[in-house]
Amino acid sequence: MNSDLSDTKTLYLQIYEKFKREIMEGIYSAGQRLPSIRKTAEDLGVARNTIEAAYRQLLQEGFVSSRTGSGYTVEQINLNEGVFSKSVDESIEAFGSRERQLILGTQKPLRSYKYDFNHENLETDAFPCDTWRKLTSDALHGVEAGGASCYNDNQGDYLLRLNIVNHLRRSRGVSCFPEQVVIQAGTQASIQNLMQLFDPQVDTVAMEEPGYSGARLAFEQSRFKVIPCPIFQGTSFYIRSLFKSVAKLCYVTPSNQFPTGLILPMQARLQLLDWANTTNAYILEDDYCREFRYNVHPVPPLQSLDAYHRVIYMGTFSTTLSPALRMSYLILPPELLSQWKEHFSATHSSVPWFSQVVLRRFIEQGHWEKQTRRALAHNKQKYEALITALNTHMKGKIELIENGAGLHVLVRVKDGKSQDELILMAENQGVGIYGTNQYWMSESPGWESPVLIGFSSIRKEDIEPGIQALAKAWFG
Amino acid sequence: MNSDLSDTKTLYLQIYEKFKREIMEGIYSAGQRLPSIRKTAEDLGVARNTIEAAYRQLLQEGFVSSRTGSGYTVEQINLNEGVFSKSVDESIEAFGSRERQLILGTQKPLRSYKYDFNHENLETDAFPCDTWRKLTSDALHGVEAGGASCYNDNQGDYLLRLNIVNHLRRSRGVSCFPEQVVIQAGTQASIQNLMQLFDPQVDTVAMEEPGYSGARLAFEQSRFKVIPCPIFQGTSFYIRSLFKSVAKLCYVTPSNQFPTGLILPMQARLQLLDWANTTNAYILEDDYCREFRYNVHPVPPLQSLDAYHRVIYMGTFSTTLSPALRMSYLILPPELLSQWKEHFSATHSSVPWFSQVVLRRFIEQGHWEKQTRRALAHNKQKYEALITALNTHMKGKIELIENGAGLHVLVRVKDGKSQDELILMAENQGVGIYGTNQYWMSESPGWESPVLIGFSSIRKEDIEPGIQALAKAWFG
């Protein structure tokens, strides 16, 4: 099964590279159309899926463009009189076959599905391009544009921080000074910076089990030992294992536990704060998805309940605005803030001034609030379409794990098939669903570990046929 | 002397905060002018410098705007019906005085000079705002804008990497595949990512002594021990101490040693490569400033001479385009590339898609080359103005350390005054020059350690009067 998979990958890469080469060598020239996916699939005798994946990779890399109904058109690629194709040959000669293999042979393949139930990307046209274009233009006009020529405040643009603080105060009850906000380039970058204030020789990190593997990876890349605290045995067991962990920092997703969607009850929130206060530890509250709750009432963030100054609050613009923007923020409690300032006093921020001043305007002029409201309404419809489709096509055959919030649900199939089998069966029907094994650290949860069905990037109208195709893949 | 300095800082911050508060409370309303620097200085009985620093901080944070000849005008700050001022009070109540001190009391002051001989920032209007605005607009039109809604290639946009490779091949003789390029968010971020592939328990890092303290900090923040290898005793001493260091990685700036401007001779380059090959170590070649050479011929980068695949090449867009863009790149040799891909396979890039696709267009359409050529010509004029001014006003009294390249020169004053004294004397005449003690690790170079006079951000016409003021400050 695995070898089938890797064969497909190789094939896709071969096809992608064939077209890339032909475009660069001018065999396909600018404005010309690539043969249709159907035709190429027939010519080469491979699945249309594979061709589509190759074309989408070319599209993503800008070799071709695509307009609905008119296929893929080769772009004008200005490589300065074909210097590249000559020099590639020279470069190739400079490397032995082993080096060439190391460089070219390990490209990450792109999988492509007719129905992709991804939970991280947003819909293709979700980004407010027109507004962003206008605000960028505003930011680059006038005196303030001097910021484009120098190193700027390494905690982030002050007015952006002020706007974030105001928004959080109104929408989430988070209370802090703009001085406590640090603009960051995403969750993983935030964690890696934050962990510089801790000592991997002494301090350990506790995480929910199951939990967000992207965060765990960032802790591990910072060389910290991560201790899993199981959440499926109830909150008091969870709190007990937290005490037993002797961790210096606990990473939590209380408003929407990843990946289960559980909401940490008020009582457990207070116990968590008590744990931090008692053991002199910190809590990293990742509030990555508070906006998207459909049938549940919000619980106040830990940060707003924290009388001990032990909570680090982390937020992101990836789920409501764009994961391509790479913008997030940390809100640091006083003691840590003071350490942060000292530690990073001579370190440049890695977040561009450009993104910051445009985002500031975006929030200031009310666009973020509008965007979030719109996304909530839209995602609620998609959530309901997904639940309805699952109940219609799979009733009695699956167990649904979801809590009326977030951008995915978990599904357990009751017939003993493994995650890998379920994913492959789906893939063969052009349906992308995702495994959850990587979210567990300590145990191999076996058949009980559910698959993840996301709805952040799929179009609303594709949900019903997608789930129908999935039901066909799984249950015939 | 130090207490004088910190008094000045406190004053500046107090004034900045007074105006900020008054703007936010509406005492100054949008469109109104702040009192002139002269008037405020007289009213408050403090130096105009201090007021200017406070105003510039307000300007930088967007509270005011400034047009030549018309002073500082208060900006429209949309804080959603004054929610902020109310909530600030609430926030303040939530914190004890110790916490408040930790949060508000440690702000980094901004120094401001009439003549600022900074070497990192660029001139205020150096950034090609119009072109950037247009290219951003292009990038956000059309089908490719789908990239704005998803996580993108974590090595960076492929066509951007291709364009960088082509540019490097033409201009620097660097030879590699686009697959070897990793787009990064600046030198320090690059180093922190790169060092994840090494082990701080076992591996050490060798650095030139003196050397770039920003890089050293990044190594130390990654928890690596850094070993200084002195460069002032000649290259064979340098190479010997490198062998003695038993380092696993050596950070070098061969095309323009920081801060001395020395160029590593060809013979030493080959010895360096030999060291890496013999000891199975890597060389991190920071080619941060190759473009700016005025009287010297370029020596080929180590990367282009490296038959052993031991050189990691690092480049930046900060010196030629904008430090606010936070864009740089690494070129990895095959073995490390393969490790990198494995290690970061589940890590998101921290460089926004937006910056990448705009920068790609900027290079593709020839703007980067034009920009670099223009900057070279302009910096050459500034370099010559600086050398002429130093010779005119300080002949015989100083020793000049420079090598006809880069964006600064070093100056030793022959009268035994300390760096701190020289800097303070300059400051009192409104002239900003910079210390170099932080570039030394092992010894305290005492009076021999020179001061740094940069010319990247000062206007050409300010160089002569600035040096004249400096001569007056130093020699009366």
Account of the protein in words:
The structure is a homodimer. Chain A has a seven-stranded mixed beta sheet. A three-stranded antiparallel beta sheet of chain A has the order 11-12-14. The first copy, chain A, has 17 helices and 14 strands. Helix content of chain A is about 45%, strand content about 10%. Chain A is globular and about 70 Å long. The model of chain A is unreliable at about 1-10 and about 80-90 (pLDDT under 50). With about 475 residues, chain A is an alpha/beta fold. In chain A, helix 6 crosses helix 14, helix 10 (about 235-245) packs parallel to helix 11 (about 265-280) and helix 15 (about 365-395) runs parallel beside helix 17. Chain A has helices at about 1-25, 35-45, 50-60, 85-95, 95-105, 130-140, 160-170, 185-195, 215-220, 235-245, 265-280, 300-305, 335-345, 355-365, 365-395, 420-430, 460-475, and strands spanning about 65, 70-75, 115, 180-185, 205-210, 225-230, 250, 280-285, 310-315, 330, 400, 410-415, 430, 450-455.
